[in-house]
Design a protein that fits this description.
Jelly Rolls, about 325 residues, seven-stranded antiparallel sheet, mainly beta, eight-stranded antiparallel sheet
């Protein structure tokens, strides 16, 4: 479904990322009063007709007078045109932004992604001892404050389904969605990993929150791979991350969990980041007995399919 309604505003992976690769927009200031006390968008009657096509979570922060959550064409894609079209290639690339091929046995491969009937589809395959999967990334980097949302049907597979952001130097990362939808795994199939990373590259150090609250379950025994859901993240400030599932805020990372090891030298999450949609065979799961080369969730093509209906980015303007 490609139509939804925006309610306008009137006021001011545990995953192993050790293999993440090392590799302008005008800088936007920290919004300061991030909207903690006054949240919820109020409909003032369509100040921006373009935005009326979309729906945003009501729990997003209200904005200062005169600003609305504005759709960002260069960071969004409705997947309504072929990968070879200008609509796709103007702002997106059919690979990881710096050419990295992926973690461990993963091999990001352009032929494993396609746009069919208005959806980006990844389908993995075992090839010569590797797992070929899809990956696309934006050509430009986005900065906070921003809200990013994707509508996804994750794969019924032990492979990760991921929508995330990464700085050019691979030291700051925000994971909007990281999920493992294999229905034979009762734990992972009912959980979403909602987290972030900060890194030091040399010598390598990786911090991410590790508490059980980073593995979201909705209390309804929802198996996430069985249907489409919307997954969103609000990057509101250097130490303000909020996660949304199907329009509801489900997690807000405590400020003291953004960078307790001071890997960012006190700045928090401030670096511009590329947007990435990917599928991967993550090595840390092999330690729990998964063999990606023989697992039916990888060797059966239809079980590996990820469906991405859209990715949308909004900024207050």
């Amino acid at each position: 479904m490609k139509y939804v309604i925006l309610l306008c505003v009137m006021f001011a992976f545990s995953c192993d990322k050790a293999d993440t690769p090392i590799n302008d927009d005008q800088e936007i200031e920290d919004p300061g009063n991030g909207g903690d006390e006054n949240e919820g968008n109020e409909n003032e009657g369509g100040e921006n007709e373009e935005e009326d096509m979309y729906m945003l979570p009501e729990a997003l922060p209200v904005l200062e007078a005169g600003k609305t959550w504005t759709y960002q064409d260069k960071f969004s894609n409705e997947f309504s045109a072929d990968k070879s079209s200008e609509e796709f290639t103007a702002n997106w690339q059919d690979k990881f932004f710096n050419g990295w091929k992926g973690p461990d046995k993963t091999r990001y491969t352009a032929s494993r992604s396609s746009i069919v009937d208005g959806e980006m589809i990844f389908e993995a395959a075992v090839v010569n001892g590797t797992v070929e999967t899809g990956c696309i990334s934006s050509k430009e980097m986005v900065e906070y404050p921003m809200y990013m949302e994707a509508r996804v049907k994750i794969s019924n597979s032990p492979l990760s389904s991921a929508v995330w952001m990464l700085s050019e130097d691979s030291t700051q990362e925000i994971d909007n969605l990281e999920a493992y939808g294999d229905v034979t795994n009762d734990y992972f199939s009912k959980r979403l990993h909602l987290s972030h990373h900060v890194f030091i590259r040399d010598p390598f150090q990786d911090y991410q929150p590790t508490g059980p609250e980073t593995w979201y379950a909705d209390g309804k025994n929802t198996v996430w791979s069985q249907d489409y859901h919307t997954y969103g993240v609000l990057w509101w400030g250097p130490r303000d991350l909020r996660y949304y599932v199907d329009g509801e805020e489900v997690r807000r990372t405590p400020e003291d969990e953004i960078d307790p090891e001071n890997y960012t030298n006190g700045t928090g999450l401030v670096k511009p980041m590329y947007l990435i949609i990917s599928q991967a065979a993550q090595g840390w799961r092999e330690n729990s007995g998964i063999d990606y080369l023989t697992d039916p969730g990888v060797t059966t093509p239809e079980r590996t399919r990820n469906y991405f209906d859209y990715i949308r980015v909004f900024k207050p303007e």
